[in-house]
Amino acid sequence: MEPDQNYAFAYDIFKDGTSKNIDMDVAATPKDAPASNGFQWVHVHGHREQLREALARQNLDPLIVNALTAAETRPRCTPIGNGAIIILRGVNLNEGAQPEDMVSIRIWVEQHRVVSCGIRPLKAIDDVVDMITSGRAPRTAGDLVAVFALRLADRVEPVVAELNEQVDGVEETLEIEDMSAVRRHLAEIRRSSIILRRFMFPQRDALTTFEVEGFSWISKLTLSHLREAVERVTRVCEELDSLRDRAQIIHDQIMDERAELMNKQMLVLTIVAAFFLPVGFLTGLLGMNVGGVPLMDSPYGFAAICGLVFVIFGIEYLIFKKLKLF
Protein backbone atom coordinates (compact mmCIF):
# COMPACT_ATOMS: atom_id res chain seq x y z
CA MET A 1 0.00 0.00 0.00
CA GLU A 2 1.19 3.50 -0.76
CA PRO A 3 1.77 5.80 2.22
CA ASP A 4 -0.89 8.26 1.09
CA GLN A 5 -3.67 5.66 0.78
CA ASN A 6 -6.37 5.44 3.41
CA TYR A 7 -8.22 2.32 4.45
CA ALA A 8 -10.09 0.88 7.41
CA PHE A 9 -11.33 -2.49 8.60
CA ALA A 10 -12.94 -4.02 11.65
CA TYR A 11 -13.25 -7.49 13.13
CA ASP A 12 -15.34 -9.10 15.80
CA ILE A 13 -12.93 -11.55 17.46
CA PHE A 14 -14.30 -14.32 19.64
CA LYS A 15 -12.74 -16.28 22.49
CA ASP A 16 -12.38 -19.44 20.44
CA GLY A 17 -9.96 -17.69 18.05
CA THR A 18 -12.48 -17.20 15.26
CA SER A 19 -13.33 -13.83 13.83
CA LYS A 20 -15.80 -12.04 11.62
CA ASN A 21 -15.08 -9.10 9.37
CA ILE A 22 -17.64 -6.36 9.95
CA ASP A 23 -18.55 -3.10 8.30
CA MET A 24 -17.09 0.08 9.79
CA ASP A 25 -20.56 1.55 10.25
CA VAL A 26 -21.52 -1.49 12.29
CA ALA A 27 -18.31 -1.21 14.30
CA ALA A 28 -19.23 2.35 15.25
CA THR A 29 -22.44 1.07 16.88
CA PRO A 30 -22.09 -0.55 20.33
CA LYS A 31 -22.95 -4.26 20.24
CA ASP A 32 -23.35 -6.98 22.82
CA ALA A 33 -21.83 -9.90 20.89
CA PRO A 34 -18.13 -8.98 21.09
CA ALA A 35 -18.58 -7.67 24.61
CA SER A 36 -19.96 -10.97 25.86
CA ASN A 37 -17.83 -13.36 23.87
CA GLY A 38 -14.64 -11.58 22.84
CA PHE A 39 -13.71 -8.12 21.64
CA GLN A 40 -13.78 -5.87 18.62
CA TRP A 41 -10.75 -4.57 16.70
CA VAL A 42 -11.06 -1.49 14.55
CA HIS A 43 -8.11 -0.21 12.50
CA VAL A 44 -7.98 2.97 10.43
CA HIS A 45 -5.17 4.32 8.29
CA GLY A 46 -4.68 7.66 6.55
CA HIS A 47 -3.71 11.26 7.06
CA ARG A 48 -4.26 12.90 10.43
CA GLU A 49 -7.53 14.56 9.44
CA GLN A 50 -8.84 11.28 8.01
CA LEU A 51 -7.89 9.54 11.24
CA ARG A 52 -9.56 12.21 13.30
CA GLU A 53 -12.83 11.83 11.38
CA ALA A 54 -12.76 8.03 11.52
CA LEU A 55 -11.92 7.91 15.23
CA ALA A 56 -14.63 10.44 16.06
CA ARG A 57 -17.19 7.96 14.66
CA GLN A 58 -15.95 5.36 17.17
CA ASN A 59 -17.38 7.36 20.08
CA LEU A 60 -13.95 7.95 21.61
CA ASP A 61 -13.21 10.72 24.08
CA PRO A 62 -11.67 13.79 22.34
CA LEU A 63 -8.63 13.43 24.61
CA ILE A 64 -8.05 9.94 23.24
CA VAL A 65 -8.60 11.08 19.64
CA ASN A 66 -6.07 13.91 20.07
CA ALA A 67 -3.49 11.50 21.51
CA LEU A 68 -3.98 8.97 18.70
CA THR A 69 -3.70 11.62 15.96
CA ALA A 70 -0.76 13.61 17.37
CA ALA A 71 1.80 14.73 14.79
CA GLU A 72 4.79 13.47 16.79
CA THR A 73 4.66 10.37 18.94
CA ARG A 74 7.02 8.33 21.07
CA PRO A 75 6.36 4.86 22.50
CA ARG A 76 4.36 5.21 25.71
CA CYS A 77 1.43 3.84 27.69
CA THR A 78 -1.07 6.22 29.28
CA PRO A 79 -3.89 4.65 31.34
CA ILE A 80 -7.22 6.48 31.08
CA GLY A 81 -10.09 5.11 33.13
CA ASN A 82 -10.45 1.40 32.43
CA GLY A 83 -8.40 1.53 29.23
CA ALA A 84 -5.04 2.73 27.97
CA ILE A 85 -3.47 4.66 25.12
CA ILE A 86 -0.48 2.71 23.81
CA ILE A 87 1.93 4.08 21.21
CA LEU A 88 4.34 1.59 19.63
CA ARG A 89 6.90 1.86 16.85
CA GLY A 90 8.01 -0.54 14.12
CA VAL A 91 10.75 -0.46 11.51
CA ASN A 92 9.83 1.11 8.20
CA LEU A 93 9.92 -1.69 5.60
CA ASN A 94 8.07 0.26 2.91
CA GLU A 95 9.73 0.45 -0.49
CA GLY A 96 12.44 3.11 -0.71
CA ALA A 97 12.34 3.87 3.03
CA GLN A 98 15.05 3.52 5.65
CA PRO A 99 14.23 0.89 8.31
CA GLU A 100 15.30 3.21 11.13
CA ASP A 101 12.66 5.75 10.01
CA MET A 102 10.28 4.01 12.38
CA VAL A 103 6.52 3.96 11.86
CA SER A 104 4.09 4.44 14.73
CA ILE A 105 0.97 2.47 15.56
CA ARG A 106 -1.41 4.23 17.95
CA ILE A 107 -3.74 2.03 20.01
CA TRP A 108 -6.66 2.56 22.34
CA VAL A 109 -7.35 -0.65 24.27
CA GLU A 110 -10.14 -1.47 26.70
CA GLN A 111 -11.77 -4.70 27.81
CA HIS A 112 -13.94 -5.36 24.77
CA ARG A 113 -12.50 -3.04 22.15
CA VAL A 114 -9.21 -2.16 20.49
CA VAL A 115 -9.00 0.84 18.18
CA SER A 116 -5.72 1.24 16.31
CA CYS A 117 -4.58 3.70 13.67
CA GLY A 118 -1.54 4.71 11.69
CA ILE A 119 -0.37 7.32 9.21
CA ARG A 120 2.11 5.18 7.29
CA PRO A 121 1.74 1.49 6.36
CA LEU A 122 3.21 -1.01 8.79
CA LYS A 123 3.99 -4.62 7.87
CA ALA A 124 3.20 -5.83 11.39
CA ILE A 125 -0.47 -4.90 10.86
CA ASP A 126 -0.58 -7.22 7.85
CA ASP A 127 0.97 -9.96 10.01
CA VAL A 128 -1.78 -9.61 12.62
CA VAL A 129 -4.50 -9.59 9.96
CA ASP A 130 -3.04 -12.80 8.50
CA MET A 131 -3.19 -14.40 11.95
CA ILE A 132 -6.84 -13.42 12.36
CA THR A 133 -7.95 -14.55 8.90
CA SER A 134 -6.18 -17.90 9.37
CA GLY A 135 -8.14 -18.64 12.55
CA ARG A 136 -5.33 -17.82 15.01
CA ALA A 137 -6.76 -14.58 16.35
CA PRO A 138 -5.72 -13.28 19.79
CA ARG A 139 -8.36 -14.28 22.35
CA THR A 140 -8.49 -10.99 24.30
CA ALA A 141 -7.84 -7.30 23.76
CA GLY A 142 -4.69 -7.53 25.90
CA ASP A 143 -3.48 -10.47 23.80
CA LEU A 144 -3.87 -8.33 20.68
CA VAL A 145 -1.53 -5.70 22.18
CA ALA A 146 0.98 -8.45 23.00
CA VAL A 147 0.73 -9.77 19.43
CA PHE A 148 1.33 -6.27 18.07
CA ALA A 149 4.49 -6.00 20.18
CA LEU A 150 5.72 -9.47 19.17
CA ARG A 151 5.16 -8.85 15.46
CA LEU A 152 6.95 -5.51 15.72
CA ALA A 153 9.87 -7.29 17.41
CA ASP A 154 9.82 -9.95 14.66
CA ARG A 155 10.23 -7.21 12.07
CA VAL A 156 13.00 -5.32 13.87
CA GLU A 157 15.16 -8.36 14.70
CA PRO A 158 16.34 -8.95 11.07
CA VAL A 159 17.25 -5.26 10.81
CA VAL A 160 19.35 -5.49 13.98
CA ALA A 161 20.92 -8.74 12.72
CA GLU A 162 21.82 -7.00 9.44
CA LEU A 163 23.49 -4.17 11.37
CA ASN A 164 25.48 -6.76 13.36
CA GLU A 165 26.61 -8.40 10.10
CA GLN A 166 27.71 -5.02 8.78
CA VAL A 167 29.75 -4.45 11.94
CA ASP A 168 31.32 -7.91 11.44
CA GLY A 169 32.22 -6.89 7.90
CA VAL A 170 33.80 -3.67 9.13
CA GLU A 171 35.91 -5.62 11.63
CA GLU A 172 37.11 -8.03 8.95
CA THR A 173 38.09 -5.31 6.47
CA LEU A 174 39.53 -2.90 9.02
CA GLU A 175 43.14 -3.64 8.05
CA ILE A 176 42.75 -3.54 4.26
CA GLU A 177 40.08 -0.95 3.53
CA ASP A 178 40.47 2.79 3.24
CA MET A 179 39.92 4.22 6.70
CA SER A 180 37.82 7.14 5.49
CA ALA A 181 35.36 4.77 3.76
CA VAL A 182 35.25 2.54 6.85
CA ARG A 183 34.54 5.51 9.09
CA ARG A 184 31.66 6.65 6.88
CA HIS A 185 30.16 3.15 6.85
CA LEU A 186 30.57 2.82 10.60
CA ALA A 187 28.96 6.21 11.13
CA GLU A 188 25.88 5.04 9.19
CA ILE A 189 25.66 1.88 11.30
CA ARG A 190 25.96 3.86 14.53
CA ARG A 191 23.31 6.34 13.39
CA SER A 192 20.85 3.56 12.55
CA SER A 193 21.44 1.73 15.84
CA ILE A 194 21.07 4.93 17.87
CA ILE A 195 17.73 5.76 16.24
CA LEU A 196 16.42 2.22 16.78
CA ARG A 197 17.57 2.25 20.38
CA ARG A 198 15.93 5.62 20.99
CA PHE A 199 12.52 4.08 20.27
CA MET A 200 12.92 0.49 21.46
CA PHE A 201 13.74 1.31 25.08
CA PRO A 202 10.61 3.48 25.57
CA GLN A 203 8.65 0.73 23.80
CA ARG A 204 9.79 -1.77 26.40
CA ASP A 205 8.80 0.64 29.16
CA ALA A 206 5.37 1.22 27.57
CA LEU A 207 4.64 -2.51 27.47
CA THR A 208 5.88 -2.91 31.05
CA THR A 209 3.58 -0.10 32.17
CA PHE A 210 0.60 -1.77 30.48
CA GLU A 211 1.54 -5.10 32.09
CA VAL A 212 1.80 -3.76 35.65
CA GLU A 213 -1.09 -1.29 35.51
CA GLY A 214 -3.39 -3.94 37.01
CA PHE A 215 -6.47 -3.72 34.79
CA SER A 216 -9.04 -6.18 36.12
CA TRP A 217 -9.91 -7.42 32.64
CA ILE A 218 -6.36 -8.61 31.90
CA SER A 219 -6.07 -12.30 32.75
CA LYS A 220 -3.00 -14.13 34.01
CA LEU A 221 -2.58 -15.78 30.61
CA THR A 222 -2.63 -12.38 28.92
CA LEU A 223 -0.07 -11.11 31.44
CA SER A 224 2.22 -14.00 30.50
CA HIS A 225 1.86 -13.03 26.83
CA LEU A 226 2.68 -9.42 27.66
CA ARG A 227 5.73 -10.53 29.65
CA GLU A 228 6.92 -12.54 26.65
CA ALA A 229 6.51 -9.43 24.48
CA VAL A 230 8.49 -7.39 27.01
CA GLU A 231 11.24 -10.04 27.00
CA ARG A 232 11.46 -9.98 23.21
CA VAL A 233 11.71 -6.20 23.11
CA THR A 234 14.28 -6.32 25.93
CA ARG A 235 16.44 -8.73 23.91
CA VAL A 236 16.28 -6.35 20.96
CA CYS A 237 17.34 -3.49 23.26
CA GLU A 238 20.25 -5.54 24.57
CA GLU A 239 21.31 -6.35 21.00
CA LEU A 240 21.23 -2.65 20.17
CA ASP A 241 23.32 -1.89 23.27
CA SER A 242 25.84 -4.54 22.22
CA LEU A 243 25.86 -3.16 18.68
CA ARG A 244 26.49 0.35 19.97
CA ASP A 245 29.36 -0.83 22.17
CA ARG A 246 30.95 -2.81 19.32
CA ALA A 247 30.69 0.16 16.97
CA GLN A 248 32.25 2.40 19.63
CA ILE A 249 35.16 -0.02 20.11
CA ILE A 250 35.80 -0.14 16.36
CA HIS A 251 35.58 3.64 16.17
CA ASP A 252 38.10 3.96 19.01
CA GLN A 253 40.38 1.49 17.23
CA ILE A 254 40.19 3.49 14.01
CA MET A 255 40.97 6.71 15.87
CA ASP A 256 43.90 5.02 17.68
CA GLU A 257 45.34 3.80 14.38
CA ARG A 258 44.87 7.24 12.87
CA ALA A 259 46.62 8.87 15.84
CA GLU A 260 49.44 6.31 15.63
CA LEU A 261 49.89 7.02 11.92
CA MET A 262 50.02 10.76 12.59
CA ASN A 263 52.55 10.20 15.38
CA LYS A 264 54.78 8.20 13.01
CA GLN A 265 54.56 10.92 10.40
CA MET A 266 55.37 13.59 12.99
CA LEU A 267 58.34 11.50 14.17
CA VAL A 268 59.74 11.34 10.63
CA LEU A 269 59.33 15.09 10.20
CA THR A 270 60.95 15.70 13.59
CA ILE A 271 63.95 13.49 12.74
CA VAL A 272 64.41 15.21 9.37
CA ALA A 273 64.21 18.64 11.03
CA ALA A 274 66.66 17.54 13.75
CA PHE A 275 69.08 16.27 11.08
CA PHE A 276 69.18 19.58 9.27
CA LEU A 277 68.96 21.90 12.29
CA PRO A 278 72.76 21.93 13.11
CA VAL A 279 73.64 22.14 9.43
CA GLY A 280 71.17 24.99 8.95
CA PHE A 281 72.69 26.80 11.91
CA LEU A 282 76.21 26.30 10.51
CA THR A 283 75.36 27.47 7.00
CA GLY A 284 73.40 30.41 8.36
CA LEU A 285 76.35 31.41 10.53
CA LEU A 286 78.82 31.18 7.65
CA GLY A 287 76.47 33.01 5.32
CA MET A 288 76.50 36.22 7.34
CA ASN A 289 77.64 39.15 5.24
CA VAL A 290 80.28 40.42 7.71
CA GLY A 291 84.04 40.40 7.78
CA GLY A 292 86.02 37.58 9.33
CA VAL A 293 83.96 34.69 7.99
CA PRO A 294 86.32 31.66 7.96
CA LEU A 295 87.57 30.28 4.62
CA MET A 296 85.92 33.14 2.74
CA ASP A 297 89.03 33.67 0.59
CA SER A 298 90.22 30.05 0.49
CA PRO A 299 89.74 28.06 -2.77
CA TYR A 300 89.08 24.99 -0.63
CA GLY A 301 86.50 26.67 1.61
CA PHE A 302 83.42 25.15 -0.02
CA ALA A 303 84.89 21.63 0.04
CA ALA A 304 85.85 22.05 3.67
CA ILE A 305 82.36 23.18 4.64
CA CYS A 306 80.78 20.27 2.71
CA GLY A 307 83.10 17.86 4.49
CA LEU A 308 82.15 19.36 7.86
CA VAL A 309 78.46 18.98 6.97
CA PHE A 310 78.93 15.26 6.20
CA VAL A 311 80.82 14.81 9.45
CA ILE A 312 77.93 16.42 11.34
CA PHE A 313 75.49 14.14 9.50
CA GLY A 314 77.55 11.12 10.50
CA ILE A 315 77.67 12.14 14.16
CA GLU A 316 73.92 12.79 14.17
CA TYR A 317 73.28 9.40 12.57
CA LEU A 318 75.24 7.62 15.28
CA ILE A 319 73.49 9.58 18.04
CA PHE A 320 70.01 8.91 16.58
CA LYS A 321 70.88 5.26 16.08
CA LYS A 322 71.96 4.94 19.69
CA LEU A 323 68.71 6.60 20.79
CA LYS A 324 66.80 4.06 18.60
CA LEU A 325 65.05 6.78 16.67
CA PHE A 326 65.50 4.76 13.47
TrEMBL record:
The keyword Transmembrane helix applies. It comes from the Bacteria. It is a multi-pass membrane protein. CDD domains: ZntB-like_1 (cd12833). Keywords: Cell inner membrane, Cell membrane, Ion transport, Membrane, Transmembrane, Transmembrane helix, Transport, Zinc. It is found in: Cell membrane. Gene3D superfamilies: CorA soluble domain-like, Magnesium transport protein CorA, transmembrane region. Coiled coil: none annotated. Pfam families: CorA. The chain crosses the membrane at residues 267-288, 300-320. Belongs to the CorA metal ion transporter (MIT) (TC 1.A.35) family. PANTHER family: CORA FAMILY METAL ION TRANSPORTER (EUROFUNG), ZINC TRANSPORT PROTEIN ZNTB. This is Zinc transporter ZntB. It comes from Maritalea mediterranea.
